[in-house]
TrEMBL record:
EC number(s) from the headed UniProt entry: 2.3.1.39
Keyword entries, A-Z: Acyltransferase, Transferase
Record GO terms (molecular function): [acyl-carrier-protein] S-malonyltransferase activity
Primary enzyme class: transferase
PANTHER family tied to this protein: MALONYL-COA-ACYL CARRIER PROTEIN TRANSACYLASE, MITOCHONDRIAL
Assigned protein family: Belongs to the fabD family.
Organism field: Loigolactobacillus jiayinensis
InterPro entries, alphabetized: Ac_transferase_dom_sf (IPR001227), Acyl_transferase_dom (IPR014043), Acyl_Trfase/lysoPLipase (IPR016035), Mal-CoA-ACP_Trans/PKS_FabD (IPR050858), Malonyl_CoA-ACP_transAc (IPR024925), Malonyl_transacylase_ACP-bd (IPR016036)
All residue ranges annotated as the Malonyl-CoA:ACP transacylase (MAT) domain in the record: 6-311
The protein's name: Malonyl CoA-acyl carrier protein transacylase
Catalytic activity: holo-[ACP] + malonyl-CoA = malonyl-[ACP] + CoA
């Protein structure tokens, strides 16, 4: 068995995330409280209540990375060691914390700045994102061409063979969606975001983020963390550049999953409040074993299922 840990990205957040772990797991509580202190943010208030700030980019990003980090800390003693780490977009920061490429202080400082700068960029340049399900590559390419006659539109996320996300201006997205519907593509879902992430519309945020990256010391880490941008493991020498590029270039989550499977990974464990990445993995690598850790019950179930499937004893 070879295992990859996955860390969910923005969009997985939801009210109440982490509350059960906080009440019943000391390691989670200590990690979450430590993150609260570093961020100077009351994470229990933000995450465990119906706090509307959790639906905004500025607050969702640090909250989700802190949650994923605490889930990882609370689970390690019970799970098999990972061979590789991978996050989707924002989730890469959770993976880099787990891999040791970033210290907790530096990682959370970066995420807090990233969320703030991306929120500012959304105010300066409005944008939209839509999930497109079960469209062919040719249809997606033609939709982008059609949309670009009216505004900006491009693929922002290559999530699985069945799912891509388009990002762009309101006019561009509308024209692309109209083209796809005319082609018979039925499942097109708007994302509740205020900007076109992973497109050039985020260039102002990427430019402003560069000085923050320059302040950090990146290390080689203890485990390989795969980049959505390059589809290869991050290196200490290029990490800052790649994280800046990630904000304006598409993510290639599906390609990373395929590469990990080719290297022998057959088991994936997702840390996050919802099984978003688990579904994408099953669409990309149907024979892989996929598990999730979101709360104490799902951790217990994952441990039991791994023991049954692989004869693990801990």
């Amino acid at each position: 068995m070879q295992v990859a840990y996955l860390f969910s990205g923005q969009g997985a957040e939801r009210a109440g995330m982490g509350a059960e772990f906080y009440q019943h797991n000391l390691q989670f509580k200590q990690a979450f409280d430590q993150a609260s202190q570093i961020l100077e943010l009351d994470l229990p208030q933000l995450c465990f209540t119906a706090d509307s700030r959790l639906q905004t980019t500025e607050y969702a990003q640090p909250a989700l990375v802190a949650l994923n980090w605490a889930l990882y800390q609370a689970s390690q003693a019970q799970l098999p060691p990972a061979n590789a780490l991978l996050g989707l977009s924002l989730g890469e920061y959770g993976a880099l914390l787990a891999g040791g490429q970033l210290t907790l202080n530096d990682g959370l400082m970066l995420v807090k700045a990233r969320g703030h700068l991306m929120a500012q960029a959304c105010q300066q340049q409005a944008g939209e994102m839509v999930v497109v399900l079960k469209a062919s590559a040719a249809q997606i390419e033609a939709a982008c061409v059609a949309g670009q006659q009216q505004g900006a539109v491009m693929v922002a996320n290559y999530n699985s063979p069945q799912q891509v996300v388009l990002g762009g201006t309101t006019a561009g997205i509308a024209a692309a969606v109209a083209y796809l519907r005319a082609q018979g593509v039925k499942r097109i879902l708007p994302l509740p975001v205020s900007g076109a992430f992973h497109t050039p519309l985020m260039q102002s945020a990427a430019t402003a983020f560069t000085p923050y990256l320059a302040q950090c010391c990146f290390s080689a880490g203890e485990l390989p963390v795969w980049s959505n941008t390059t589809c290869t493991p991050f290196t200490a020498a290029t990490l800052a550049t790649t994280l800046a590029q990630q904000m304006v270039q598409p993510t290639h989550f599906a390609a990373c999953i395929k590469a990990l499977v080719q290297q022998g990974v057959d088991t994936f464990v997702e840390f996050g409040p919802a099984p978003v990445l688990a579904r994408l993995v099953k669409q990309t690598a149907p024979h892989a074993q996929v598990y999730q850790v979101a709360d104490p019950e799902s951790l217990t179930n994952t441990v039991i299922e791994l023991e049954v499937a692989h004869g693990i004893t801990r």
